[in-house]
Amino acid sequence: MASKLIVFGGNGFLGKRICQEAVTAGYQVVSVSRSGKAPHSNELNDKQWIQEVQWTAADIFKPDSYHELLKGAHNVVHSLGILLENENYKKTLSKTPTNDSKSYLLSIGAGPNPLKKSNPYWTYEMMNKQSAVILANTFKQEILKEGKMEQAKVNERSFTYISADKGFPMIPGGYINSKREAEIEIEKMKKYFRPIIMRPGFMFDERKNAIEPRSFIHTALELLYCGNKFLLQNKLQFMNDLIRPTVSTQQVSHSILTKMKDPNFSGVVTLEEILHI
């Protein structure tokens, strides 16, 4: 019988690639999101794996809406979170940059949010930290109900949290702080499952259209990274900390599945490790 994998945020930018990788690896995959809808794609390869996933709607802040799904689950992935406390920035990333580059940068979050938040959950504390802690605790409660606490069983279960490599210039410190606080809380539950903490940097999709905003940002960051590596030869530590390599959603997904399959692994997976797995 195939192992059961639950991906919260499975129809998102990274989540859908985790689902794809898991289907390819033979997992029984369930995607949980607020809408419960499958991601839209015109690509034949995507349509094939999308049909293999169970797309389900639930509210991560309301465990009663999904705790039944966790019964018998071997692995749970939390692939939710926000870069900015502005619920419009993700919509902006799906648009094409305008000629007014300053306005465009502000719109994707390189500056203060001029809009009043309409979603009370749309904060670093709630989306990046509490949603993960609530999910991990719910998973723990289901494990306790099953009564399978022997070490061999614990090693068969994992909880993966998508954290972050570092903060970003012009992004509030609350972003990375909320990620690190969530990591600490999840690590406390290692007697129930293996915590897998992924720390990717800026992510891009290998199959995305080159005219999309993420692709422009990806290209700019890669140029900076190459310049620091070949021109400055990584001699300035503050530049090394500031300019980090980008990573594809496919690389992150592959790394997650690799660590998930290893019953002896738990802990942090750094950006460098993700890039070389």
Automatic annotation (TrEMBL):
Transmembrane segments: none annotated. GO terms for cellular component: mitochondrion. It holds the Pfam family Epimerase. The lineage of its organism: Eukaryota, Fungi, Dikarya, Ascomycota, Saccharomycotina. InterPro entries: ComplexI_NDUFA9_subunit, Epimerase_deHydtase, NAD(P)-bd_dom_sf. One of its GO terms (molecular function) is protein-containing complex binding. It comes from Saccharomyces mikatae IFO 1815. The gene is SMKI12G3490. This is NAD-dependent epimerase/dehydratase domain-containing protein. Residues 6-79 form the NAD-dependent epimerase/dehydratase domain.
